[in-house]
Design goal:
By secondary structure, the protein is α/β, with parallel strands linked by helices. The protein has two domains: about 210 residues, Aldehyde Dehydrogenase, Chain A, domain 1, CATH 3.40.605.10; about 200 residues, Aldehyde Dehydrogenase, Chain A, domain 2, CATH 3.40.309.10. The protein has 15 helices and 23 strands. Helix 15 links the parallel strand 18 and strand 19. It binds nicotinamide-adenine-dinucleotide (NAD). The site of nicotinamide-adenine-dinucleotide has 29 residues, from helix 8 and helix 9. Keywords: NAD, Oxidoreductase. Its EC number is 1.2.1.3. It comes from Rhodococcoides kroppenstedtii.
């Protein structure tokens, strides 16, 4: 364990909130309205009470009314709000990063990295606000022009998960704002504090940009608050990030009212390690991807499919690297492995290891629970939930490996033929991120080809986690098919119109159809 630096997390949280322009948490139950306790996974202690002030209904009403005006503001002017947000995030990066560490348990560098990701998408969004472009398309009719335009879509509901408590909001919200949409955010019930801080920064950004409209709003609450957004006919797009279980509930409900969904759900990411792999680089890539955020990233590496000729060597090196991992308070700058989010996460971690053992798996290293800071603290908190990341050698890919267990377990299986390795790689229900470690160009290209990885993200000589914002982010199969962030992901937040303009004095019909003229001919028309 690393040393602990967790004294007074509740006081520190309120101090950070104030510095970010937000109200501090309530120390005790308020007289009116609802309030929810916010908790830190670092020590298990209560940080304070979060007032629940706005309902989903009220937020959507305000967002729908703001949309009518916001959607008419020119896109480059909308970009000014995003520019201000980016500046505020730069100014407050360390405070917000620390709050992410306190509330989500990310180590210092990852907390700051999450805020940097927000800054990066703001930079991207400002440029995008001048580049929302449609195509012009050749028409078959003389004297005509055909083109596409992209128009604002409406109210966007953004439902987020605990493990990226602020960045995922920004990936969605920046694109939505630039697109001319208004946003209602329902963060995870496990991370309301960082959401309050981000909302305060977003309000300030709008003020600085001279926008007097509720273009972004925050609704705190549990699943029912998310469900209210999902079922609201006025919400044009539900962008939901979380478990596949959640996506399975959300998708049909939104489809039943012909709304749009953008789903970013669970992953079960793998790396294939080939005989030619640079093993030093591979070990570094694997350790970061498998134990970063204590294995609680959607892109965390969960399965290593290793050529039999290098498997023993690789596993030995991994065991040696795992043995040196500093586990403890994520607020200590030396820590590399912070806490699991809560006790339920530990139960799932331990159950998966039991199942793997029953399947013939051998736990090479880790798997134990270790004491963290806060045990026996004055407020009676049970302490944070800390474990040693595990590496498990499996005889084959079994059912437990096909499930996403949200914790630091790396299963290792071996292969002899690359085709078989790719088949094992793809033989899971999820399809988020993937990687291959090789110095053989043919192997790398085969992995990236249509008959290679079936994931939304496929990397070479990089682990599956740690994407940049410039690319489209998302995955296939049970990961939900959505794409967020860079590339042309902005199109999901807009509606496309196809326009045909006749600047001639004739009225030729498509497909050569004639209607009411002397020379009739058969044809189809749409
Ligand atoms: P979760 O599914 O428990 O909760 C996510 C959010 O959905 C929360 O805000 C929750 O209140 C809300 N929610 C739950 N059920 C709902 C319903 N029926 N209707 C509306 N809203 C509902 O997920 P979690 O435990 O917070 O996060 C971990 C999961 O998220 C993992 O599976 C992880 O892979 C996934 N995740 C995916 C991505 C991605 O980009 N693909 C990113 C981060 C996390």
């Amino acid at each position: 364990m690393t040393a602990t630096t967790t004294a007074g997390l509740a006081d520190r949280t309120s101090e950070l909130l104030r510095s970010l322009g937000a109200e501090p948490l309530l120390p005790s139950a308020p007289n009116s309205g609802e309030a929810r306790a916010a908790r830190s996974p670092v020590t298990g202690e209560t940080l304070g009470l979060v007032p629940v002030t706005v309902t989903a209904e009220e937020a959507v009403t305000a967002a729908a009314s703001a949309f009518a005006e916001w959607s008419t503001v020119p896109a480059p002017v909308r970009g000014a709000v995003v520019r201000e947000l980016g500046e505020l995030l730069r100014e407050h990066k360390s405070a917000l990063g620390e709050l992410v560490s306190i509330e989500a348990g990310k180590i210092v560098s990852e907390g700051l990295g999450e805020v940097q990701e927000m800054i990066d998408i703001c930079d991207f969004g400002v440029g995008l606000s001048r580049q929302l472009h449609g195509s012009t398309i050749a028409t078959e009719r003389p004297g005509h022009r055909m083109m596409e335009q992209w128009h604002p879509l409406g109210v966007v509901a953004v439902i987020t998960a605990f493990n990226f408590p602020v960045a995922v909001w920004s990936w969605n919200t920046v694109l939505a704002l630039v697109a001319g949409d208004t946003v209602v955010w329902k963060p995870s019930e496990k991370t309301p504090v960082t959401a309050i801080a981000v909302q305060a920064l977003a309000d300030e950004a709008a003020r600085r940009a001279g926008v007097d409209l509720p273009v972004t709003q925050l609704v705190l609450g549990e699943r029912d608050a998310g469900e209210a957004l999902v079922d609201d006919l006025r919400v044009a797009l539900v962008s939901a990030t979380g478990s596949t279980r959640m996506g399975r509930e959300v998708a049909p409900r939104v489809a039943a009212r012909f709304g749009r969904v953008l789903l970013e759900l669970g992953g079960n990411n793998a790396a294939i390690v080939c005989p030619s792999a640079d093993l030093d680089l591979t070990v570094r890539g694997i350790v970061f991807s498998a134990v970063g955020t204590a294995g609680q990233r959607c892109t965390s590496l969960r399965r290593a499919i290793v050529h039999e000729s290098v498997a023993d060597d690789l596993v030995d090196r991994l065991a040696a690297a795992y043995a040196t991992l500093p586990i403890g308070s994520p607020l200590d700058p030396d820590t590399l492995v912070g806490p699991l989010i809560d006790e339920d996460a530990y139960t799932a971690f331990a159950a998966a290891l039991d199942e793997a053992r029953a399947d013939g798996g051998i736990v090479v290293t880790g798997g134990e629970r270790v004491d963290g800071p806060g045990v026996g603290s004055a407020d009676g908190a049970a302490g944070g939930v800390y474990v040693r990341p595990a590496v498990v050698r499996m005889p084959a890919q079994t059912a437990v490996m096909r499930r996403e267990t949200f914790g630091p377990i790396l299963y290792v299986v071996t292969y002899t033929d690359l085709g078989d390795a790719i088949a094992v790689h793809n033989d899971v229900p999820q399809g988020l991120s993937s990687s291959i470690f090789t110095t053989d160009l043919r192997e790398a290209e085969r992995f990236l080809s249509p008959s290679g990885s079936d994931c939304g993200i496929a990397n070479v000589n990089i682990g599956p986690s740690g994407a940049e914002i410039g690319g489209a982010f998302g995955g296939e199969k049970e990961t939900g098919g959505g794409r967020e962030s860079g590339s042309d992901a902005w199109k999901a937040y807009m509606r496309r119109t196809t326009n045909t303009v006749n600047y001639s004095s004739e009225l030729p019909l498509a497909q050569g159809v004639t209607f009411g003229s002397p020379a009739r001919s058969a044809g189809s028309a749409r």
